[in-house]
Amino acid sequence: MDVAIHDSWKTHLKEEFEKPYFKDLVAFVKQEYKAHQCFPPGKDIFNAFNFCGFNDVKVVIIGQDPYHGPNQANGLCFSVKDGIPHPPSLVNIFKEIETDIGNPYPKSGDLSHWAKQGVLLLNATLTVRAHQAGSHQKKGWETFTDAVIKAVSSKKENVVFLLWGGYAKQKSKLIDTSKHHILTSGHPSPLSANRGYWFGNKHFSKTNSLLIKTKKDIINW
């Protein structure tokens, strides 16, 4: 696994790449990809950073784990490759966008166009073994992605963090709320959404309102 990450991030994360835990993580991931089918493809592992440079980050969405089915994960949380059926959480995200801001339900589940507008689509764990959810958790990825969140929090201002579900909400302790905005709601998964914890959160229009207040371009969701 080469750390093929956008240069703008290297400045802020170079210390992480030198730490023993990260070297152990790289060794683990290389071995896993050699011995098992894993997702996303190696070249896509750092897509969240490569589609959204550090200087461009305006919004952060935090997921937990990549999709573990064939051809789904593309390195961006909640996103799937073009032509792949939309997983249930993504369906509910698109439904909320439709009712919140009126954008029609899209054919493609690829969210790279969000990332290119400044949305960091960050999974806490960046890799997974096929058909084994959570199989690469607690191997060092979370330490790395926590460092990413801290770097964004300490070195930027007026970023909107969207924390969906209990796991993402735990990350609020890494964020300086005196200079950033946090919006929380239930997770878009059917279990949470069908209990009334997701639909109607209006996070997409609220995010754009916050961006307007800080004189930033809105996101075309």
- Largest sheet geometry: 4 strands, parallel
Strand residue content: 5-15%
Order of helices and strands: HHEHEHHEEHEHEHH
**How far apart are the first and last residues' alpha carbons, in Å?**
32 Å
CATH architecture label: 3-Layer(aba) Sandwich
Q: How are the strands of the largest sheet arranged?
A: 3-2-5-6
Percent range for helical residues?
25-40%
What is the CATH T-level topology?
Answer: Uracil-DNA Glycosylase, subunit E
Computed structural class: alpha/beta
How many strands appear in the DSSP assignment? 6
Task: State the domain count.
Answer: 1
Return the CATH class.
Alpha Beta
How many individual helices? Answer: 9
Shape: globular
| CATH homologous superfamily heading | Uracil-DNA glycosylase-like domain
Cα radius of gyration in angstroms: 17 Å
Low-confidence stretches: none
Mean pLDDT: 96
GO cellular component, one term: cytoplasm
Keywords: Cytoplasm, DNA damage, DNA repair, Hydrolase
Function: Excises uracil residues from the DNA which can arise as a result of misincorporation of dUMP residues by DNA polymerase or due to deamination of cytosine.
GO molecular function, one term: uracil DNA N-glycosylase activity
